[in-house]
């Protein structure tokens, strides 16, 4: 029987028999105490592994050290882990509130943070035929601009007389007014009589104003070069195309940004009218411009509200009319217009649906809160 000192200050008895070391009952008591201390710590796996280690043989005299006899470093590490575990158990649970001070860092999040993650919740999946039908409003406006430019070129070259254009635009105005009146009755538009009266009054006033200002507008840009006129006209038509109101909800008036589009078209028309020869041609061309860019879009919106197929049919007819009119002016421009119309009608919807698969919109608890406003009426 031999007493073997250990580092933790607790001696235990060791017996040497046939060159093998065997533990005494007191050593078993020390090992059991160390095992119980390991179970009380948060790192139970470390205590369990330490308690099941095989006896170590010292290199000096063959003395053995039982697995339960821990060093001072291991005891202090277990004490630190146990202290942190006790501190974690005593802290209050984390809450997602910014107006209270908590025992957690500012960037702390718990395990449920990403459970509220939502992907592509507001993404709208498009159907190809529906998107093709909705492109009619764009192709209609592009074709209407092309028809207007073709009318000016024919009037500028002298192949179209001013009185013919005046009669043609007047007939179209009357037909459009009848069509608008029938659709207003069909759609049950409120205050239809008041709107009808205001529309007629406005048309008469604009016609008289244009007739009186035609000599002034004809000589408005005499000192300006033609290249500047053509360049400014292209810019104004691009602004008209960009700011045009392509929605179908506005049926009675012109709102922003549609007003910007209308003003740009009228300015382009005034610049083009200043290049004509006679006052009658200027008056007919500006009257046609007001009808084409002011009244015709409202009729197209009414038609769109009634039937999407009828709106698509009008888009096809306008594209064909513009192509036929430009066929006598420039075949390249006519083919380019048809190609652009086909691309906008069939290519752009396909492109939109193809890029929609790469859309990745995420929502989660990091988004700012949206207040819910309740309206109470007495």
From TrEMBL:
<feature type="transmembrane region" description="Helical">
    <location>
        <begin position="128"/>
        <end position="153"/>
    </location>
</feature>
<dbReference type="InterPro" id="IPR009450">
    <property type="entry name" value="Plno_GlcNAc_GPI2"/>
</dbReference>
<comment type="similarity">
    <text>Belongs to the PIGC family.</text>
</comment>
<feature type="transmembrane region" description="Helical">
    <location>
        <begin position="254"/>
        <end position="274"/>
    </location>
</feature>
<dbReference type="GO" id="GO:0004177">
    <property type="term" value="F:aminopeptidase activity"/>
</dbReference>
<dbReference type="GO" id="GO:0006506">
    <property type="term" value="P:GPI anchor biosynthetic process"/>
</dbReference>
<dbReference type="Pfam" id="PF06432">
    <property type="entry name" value="GPI2"/>
</dbReference>
<protein>
    <submittedName>
        <fullName>Glycosylphosphatidylinositol anchor biosynthesis</fullName>
        <ecNumber>3.4.11.19</ecNumber>
    </submittedName>
</protein>
<keyword id="KW-0812">Transmembrane</keyword>
<keyword id="KW-1133">Transmembrane helix</keyword>
<keyword id="KW-0337">GPI-anchor biosynthesis</keyword>
<feature type="compositionally biased region" description="Low complexity">
    <location>
        <begin position="41"/>
        <end position="51"/>
    </location>
</feature>
<feature type="transmembrane region" description="Helical">
    <location>
        <begin position="335"/>
        <end position="355"/>
    </location>
</feature>
<keyword id="KW-0472">Membrane</keyword>
<feature type="transmembrane region" description="Helical">
    <location>
        <begin position="280"/>
        <end position="298"/>
    </location>
</feature>
<keyword id="KW-0378">Hydrolase</keyword>
<feature type="compositionally biased region" description="Polar residues">
    <location>
        <begin position="71"/>
        <end position="83"/>
    </location>
</feature>
<feature type="transmembrane region" description="Helical">
    <location>
        <begin position="229"/>
        <end position="247"/>
    </location>
</feature>
<feature type="compositionally biased region" description="Basic and acidic residues">
    <location>
        <begin position="29"/>
        <end position="40"/>
    </location>
</feature>
<comment type="pathway">
    <text>Glycolipid biosynthesis; glycosylphosphatidylinositol-anchor biosynthesis.</text>
</comment>
<keyword id="KW-0031">Aminopeptidase</keyword>
<dbReference type="GO" id="GO:0000506">
    <property type="term" value="C:glycosylphosphatidylinositol-N-acetylglucosaminyltransferase (GPI-GnT) complex"/>
</dbReference>
<feature type="transmembrane region" description="Helical">
    <location>
        <begin position="199"/>
        <end position="217"/>
    </location>
</feature>
<feature type="transmembrane region" description="Helical">
    <location>
        <begin position="165"/>
        <end position="187"/>
    </location>
</feature>
<keyword id="KW-0645">Protease</keyword>
<feature type="region of interest" description="Disordered">
    <location>
        <begin position="17"/>
        <end position="84"/>
    </location>
</feature>
<feature type="transmembrane region" description="Helical">
    <location>
        <begin position="310"/>
        <end position="329"/>
    </location>
</feature>
């Amino acid at each position: 029987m031999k007493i073997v000192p250990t580092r933790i200050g607790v001696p235990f008895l060791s017996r040497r028999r046939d060159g093998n070391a065997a533990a005494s009952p007191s050593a078993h008591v020390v090992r059991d105490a160390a095992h119980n201390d390991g179970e009380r710590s948060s790192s139970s796996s470390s205590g369990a592994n330490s308690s099941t280690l095989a006896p170590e043989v010292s290199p000096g005299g063959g003395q053995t050290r039982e697995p339960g006899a821990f060093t001072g470093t291991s005891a202090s590490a277990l004490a630190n882990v146990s202290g942190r575990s006790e501190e974690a158990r005593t802290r209050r649970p984390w809450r997602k509130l910014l107006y209270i001070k908590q025992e957690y860092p500012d960037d702390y999040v718990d395990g449920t943070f990403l459970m509220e993650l939502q992907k592509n919740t507001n993404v709208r999946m498009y159907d190809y035929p529906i998107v093709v039908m909705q492109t009619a409003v764009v192709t209609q406006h592009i074709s209407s601009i092309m028809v207007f430019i073709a009318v000016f070129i024919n009037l500028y070259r002298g192949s179209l007389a001013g009185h013919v254009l005046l009669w043609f635009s007047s007939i179209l105005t009357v037909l459009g007014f009848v069509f608008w009146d029938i659709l207003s009755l069909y759609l049950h538009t409120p205050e239809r009589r008041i709107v009808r009266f205001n529309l007629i009054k406005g048309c008469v006033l604009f016609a008289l104003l244009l007739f009186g200002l035609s000599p002034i507008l004809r000589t408005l840009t005499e000192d300006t070069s033609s290249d500047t006129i053509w360049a400014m006209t292209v810019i104004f038509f691009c602004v008209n195309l960009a700011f045009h109101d392509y929605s179908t909800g506005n049926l009675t008036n012109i709102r922003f940004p549609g007003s910007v589009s209308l003003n740009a078209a009228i300015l382009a028309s005034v610049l083009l009218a200043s290049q004509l020869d006679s006052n009658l041609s200027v008056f007919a061309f500006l009257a046609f411009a007001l009808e084409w860019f002011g009244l015709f879009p409202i009729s197209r919106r009414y038609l769109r509200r009634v039937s999407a197929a009828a709106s698509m049919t009008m888009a096809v007819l306008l594209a064909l009319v513009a192509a036929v009119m430009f066929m006598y002016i420039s075949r390249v421009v006519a083919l380019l217009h048809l190609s652009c119309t086909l691309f906008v009608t069939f290519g752009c919807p396909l492109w939109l649906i193809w890029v929609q698969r790469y859309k990745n919109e995420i929502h989660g608890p990091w988004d700012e809160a949206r207040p819910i406003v309740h309206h109470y009426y007495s």
